[in-house]
Amino acid sequence: xxxxxxxxxxxxxxxxxxxxxxxxxxxxxxxxxxxxxxxxxxxxxxxxxxxxxxxxxxxxxxxxxxxxxxxxxxxxxxxxxxxxxxxxxxxxxxxxxxxxxxxxxxxxxxxxxxxxxxxxxxxxxxxxxxxxxxxxxxxxxxxxxxxxxxxxxxxxxxxxxxxxxxxxxxxxxxxxxxxxxxxxxxxxxxxxxxxxxxxxxxxxxxxxxxxxxxxxxxxxxxxxxxxxxxxxxxxxxxxxxxxxxxxxxxxxxxxxxxxxxxxxxxxxxxxxxxxxxxxxxxxxxxxxxxxxxxxxxxxxxxxxxxxxxxxxxxxxxxxxxxxxxxxxxxxxxxxxxxxxxxxxxxxxxxxxxxxxxxxxxxxxxxxxxxxxxxxxxxxxxxxxxxxxxxxxxxxxxxxxxxxxxxxxxxxxxxxxx
Length: 417
Known about the structure:
There is one protein chain. Residues 411-417 have low confidence and may be disordered. The chain is α/β, with parallel strands linked by helices and 417 residues long. The relative contact order is 0.16. β10 and β11 (334-338) form a beta hairpin. It folds into 2 domains: 8-46 and 296-405, Aspartate Aminotransferase, domain 1 (Alpha-Beta Complex); 48-293, Aspartate Aminotransferase, domain 2. 43% of the residues lie in helices and 14% in strands. It has an 8-stranded mixed sheet, with helices on both faces.
């Protein structure tokens, strides 16, 4: 009898689906392709000299500890530095026991879902929202409830309305997931008054908030907006942070800042996953913080990304057809593009790739299969000359598609009239 692996799969495994974005990225490994598809930091932004120096120091002074297994909670001095930094930089001071070091913030979200959500529980998100969160909640057998958004992010009244609808049906949601600062995919930042109203709703309706903040320190203009965590007086906000976008994703180090009970349970769940986050990376990151090298580096990469954002915006304003709308983010890594409703971003993608330029279609970010006329463009990774050339190629593809759609809508008259 032959082995049939399919018969051994769990119900969770049957629900898992490949990320359309990850599958797309496999097609982009070509030197001539101008990719606006990933959310990748620019390699030129990596502090190579500083990291090389720190690696040498760690190997010289801390090799015995840094090359060993570490505590599941994480390197104590790094946890203490993060706890203090959240107070100094964010106005959200933490105790060390509120901090768990994770393998990227994606693991922090996965652990939070594991310890909070039962199969069938509802989770609220913005619509659209970060695709990695949708994959996580799907793996947790959750029901994702996408809440309507506008140019300022999730609409509080829509959240209240959906909570009431669920309550009338005898159900409730436990978790609200948000990327309120430079949202992925839209780049939108939720203003302070709306954040406070969302937090009030969470308190009134007994919701836990997961605040995902991978880009918050990458602000290029405008005023800082308080974190949800900084206005949290009840321990109701679980904050997800990461060094991937502000230092280097190869370290794979993030953190969860949350109520101590949630941290203790997340530690137990993490022990079943990977025992501990890579100790060597934690030691290196702590030394970079300890040497006061992190925030000067962040200022440097902000200048790089600000210039790239401005270049993409100028190119979009100059070249894209006037019917196309796009966001103007104050920070982060992405522009969000909305095509006229008659165009489909997925149908256009092969044509764009034939021209040697790629983006990420918007539909997978939505919870309701909408957004077919949207896509996301990353401005951090491509070189400056390729940004302008890539936008030019996209503009030509979109303009041709619009011309084709108009020809279909207004065919040439045939007959005597």
